[in-house]
Amino acid sequence: MAVIRAEGLYKFFGSKLAVANLTLEIAPGEIFGFLGPNGAGKSTSVKMLLGLARPSGGRATVLGRPLGDVACRARIGFLPEHFRFYEWLTAAELLRFHGRLAGLDRRTARQRAAHWLDRVGLAAHAGQRLGQFSKGMRQRLGLAQALLHDPELVFLDEPTSGLDPGGRWLVREILREQRARGAAVFLNSHLLGEVESTCDRVAFLREGEIRAVRPLVHGALAAAQGSVPVEVRAGGLGAELLAGLAPWAEVVAWAGDHLRLEVRREADLPAVAQYLVAGGAAIFAFTPRRATLEEAFAAIVGREAGL
Amino acid sequence: MKLLLIAAITLREAARRKVLLAAALLSAGYLALFALGVATQFRGPHAPAVLIRQEITASLLQLALYGVSFLAALLAIVSSLETVAGEIGSGAIQALATKPLPRWQLLLGKWLGFAALLAGYVAVMTAGVTLVLWLGRGYAAPHLFAAAALIWSEALVLLTLTLWFATFSSPLASGVAALGLYGLAFIGGWVEQIGALTGHPGAVRVGIVASLICPSEELWRRASYLLRSPLPGASRFTPFGVASAPSGAMVVYAAVYLAAILALALRHFSCRDL
């Protein structure tokens, strides 16, 4: 069963359309990336799914419950963008308080708080007040706050903002732990690298609307339906040999050992390679070029969008 | 009960952010000055007659508790204006409002925390003032509990108004609006008193309308009326005079008003986008 199922959610602020026709489904154990430039409607979408903002239209369920359901929030974790909380609380107090609010008993809240302080590298600062924390330390604490009750669904809004490289690695590691545990993660980000390195699927958002949803395999965008460009470096290429590629591919350019092909379907790649070898070509390189996330982002969302 | 967790952390905030300390130190100063005033009052060769002393002591009690009611009203506004509006502004509220407790409990918990803070403040100050008069003058104030409860209710009206404003406006605007209503009720009360003394029913009506808009001053006047000297007609035209005493119906109205504003605040906070 899907942990999130949204059908045509809309959000207007006055007459301004912030989110249009948000439709998506997220499975348990999936890390779902929500990519888009600033102002594309990422945070507003998350707020609607969390019940912080009321949709202007559409329907959705989260963990099988309608939006705004109070009880199911015990199974949800949330790291807001730029996490801020009472400056006068110590790190340990903050986590215990959030644990208790999430429904943990006093003892469990204390244990989880200690565990998570350690996990996010703040054990040495447990008794320090938030007011003295750096931006990165707050963000780590916010992450701990979102996860300490072992939620089934976690929303992270720009989790690595303000984090140094060490913090970013930590976030990646923790995200993978969450997936291994079976939790679903909804990751809002405008950082392509972050999404590339962790997500199973990514949605591209622009001007409030999802423009495309693509699976990611080992950090690369899985091939779309279309053709695959292939770079070949091989000896023994000839015009006759290349003419025989016609059933699978088109020759884009050929000069000496260098050949560029446009193979019509990804499934045809082995056939092309076998044909070339059988025809006497000595292959040094055969590289299908899959689009990177950045290229896909530029193609789908555009380079200039965002404020 | 998660409501109580919120109430407890609201109280803890007051303690941690030194609100309690500041209030305690200044209250101690207030009581010390009052004790000094009481101690020096009837010294010297021209000590007044017993009846007049009694009269003056009753007025002193009203004066001191008027100060307490004013400070409690300010404390109600100043301590609470940052909490809701400020947390909405900073986004801290988002981490709270996504926890498994209904939003109305979040706001009601805060309200309870501040209400407890104000109860403590009014109780300590009323007890202090009464103790000074009892030790210094041997004066036992009448209707003390009822008067303290009325002063507390006055602070609760202002607390509730501030929290309601804070559900839709900035901390500064909420504080200014609540203080403005307090001032309106104050002037309205005066207009009513003067109207009653000079026999102008129109002025009395204006005062009543003001107290319907904000019944804070009426609650103080009811308290003052209970604390008055038992001598008839004495010291009528003072800031604590009660030429036109608020009726019990006005107290009931204030209770309904408070409940209605609280309900409005809870409702609006539950519906708005955060």
General description of the model:
With 307 residues, chain A is of the alpha/beta class. Chain A folds into two domains: 4-221, P-loop containing nucleotide triphosphate hydrolases (Rossmann fold), CATH 3.40.50.300; 228-288, Alpha-Beta Plaits. Chain A is built from nine helices and 15 strands. In chain A, the strands form three sheets. Chain A has a seven-stranded mixed sheet with strand order 6-7-8-3-9-10-11, with helices on both faces. In chain A, strands 2-1-4-5 form a four-stranded antiparallel sheet, with helices on one face. Chain A has a four-stranded antiparallel sheet with strand order 13-14-12-15, with helices on one face. In chain A, helix 3 (106-119) packs across helix 4 (135-147). The longest helix of chain A is centred in the middle third of the chain and has 17 residues, at 165-181. Chain A is elongated and about 75 Å long. Chain B has 274 residues and is mainly α. Chain B has one domain (2-271). Chain B is 80% helix and 0% strand. Chain B has eleven helices and no strands. Chain B has helices spanning 2-16, 19-41, 50-80, 83-90, 92-97, 103-137, 144-166, 171-198, 201-213, 216-227, 248-271. The two termini of chain B are 23 Å apart. Chain A binds chain B through residues 47, 50-54, 70-74, 76, 78, 80-86, 88-89, 97-98, 100-103, 142, 145, and chain B through 2, 5, 9, 13, 16-17, 90-92, 94-102, 271, 273-274.
Characteristics of this structure?
heterodimer, A: 307 residues, alpha/beta, Rossmann fold, Alpha-Beta Plaits, 2 domains, 7-stranded mixed β-sheet, 4-stranded antiparallel β-sheet, elongated, B: 274 residues, mainly alpha, 11 helices, 80% helix
Note the run of SSEs of chain A as H and E.
EEEHEEEHHHEHEHEEEEHEEHEH
Q: Which protein chains are joined by the largest interface, and how many residues does each one contribute? A: A-B, 30 and 21 residues
Please tally the β strands of chain B and state the result. 0
Number of E-state strands of chain A:
15
**Beta-strand residue percentage of chain B:** under 5%
Tally the helices of chain A.
Answer: 9
**N-to-C span of chain B:** 23 Å
CATH topological fold name of the largest domain in chain A: Rossmann fold
CATH architecture of the largest domain in chain A: 3-Layer(aba) Sandwich
Low-confidence stretches of chain A: none
Biggest sheet statistics of chain B: none
Give the integer mean of the pLDDT values of chain A: 89
